[in-house]
Fold each of these.
Amino acid sequence: MFQRRRHPAKGPHCCPPQMMPMQYDPPQFLPPEQYVRTNYIHTVVPHVQPAHVTTVNKHMIDHQYYFPCTESVVNECCETHTMCGMPPNPCHMPHHHKHMR
């Protein structure tokens, strides 16, 4: 019978890729993000100015207690000005259209 001649290999042979099991690294913890929650408190302040005078005689006894501590407060003020009646808005006035013929 005939014998086949073998040719020398001309480079590496490629094998099909293999799927390896999933690997997990340890979790990476970032510094926490800081959020500021702002509460808006709407306060209506009616101004009523009646007058009455009462004389009160007070005897003051001064009891002094000391409790040092620290505290921080942020006060923000928002104002509104209410207009009772609005001037006409020219952008919302009715237009008179000319009909094209």
Note: The chain is about 0% helix and 0% strand.
Amino acid sequence: MNKSELIDAIAADAGITKAAAKLALESFLGNVGKTLKKGGRVSLVGFGSWSVSKRAARDGRNPQTGKTIKIAAKNVVKFKAGAELEGTVN
């Protein structure tokens, strides 16, 4: 399912226009991004939670040349599925 299909599904399920569903989805995504950027955590009980983790700098290897390269430290987003979502999938 892509973003436009998700918007269509939200609009149909909620009985709202596609424009309103798009606005709601973009608001949700924007607020999740802002919270994670501040270092916060977003949790939806039953669905899952998003958090930010720091990945340390490390040495890597270029697979074509075998030469050692430096990989910079960065923040990565992690998602942990909730029990209800895992139950739906399994």
Note: Strands lie at 42-44, 48-55, 58-61, 68-71, 74-81.
Amino acid sequence: MQRIALHTKLKPGKEAEYEQVHAVIPAELDAALRAAGVHSWRIWRDGQDLFHVVEVEDYQAMRHALRDHPANVAWQATMSELLAVEDDYSGTDTGLPQVWELPGSGGA
């Protein structure tokens, strides 16, 4: 299991819309994420900055599985209207590098 931290940024004025869209994600996207090995995905927001923590079997495999999945393609089209930089799942993103962990906290 991998624990991946991500940082994304909203376009100015899109905070409320982003939260509204995430209140309930489409069932097809939920199923696609779970089928791709995602166990949990949490997002925190500070102004326009979004901080994600994803617990997933294999992050790169998940991105590959979702890249052309119809539910994710539709979701990313919606996100492209809200995010300052859209993610087309074509890169080799590995998340944010971890720089510190409280010793003995049993991280991933």
Note: Residues 2-84 form a domain with the Alpha-Beta Plaits fold (CATH 3.30.70.100).
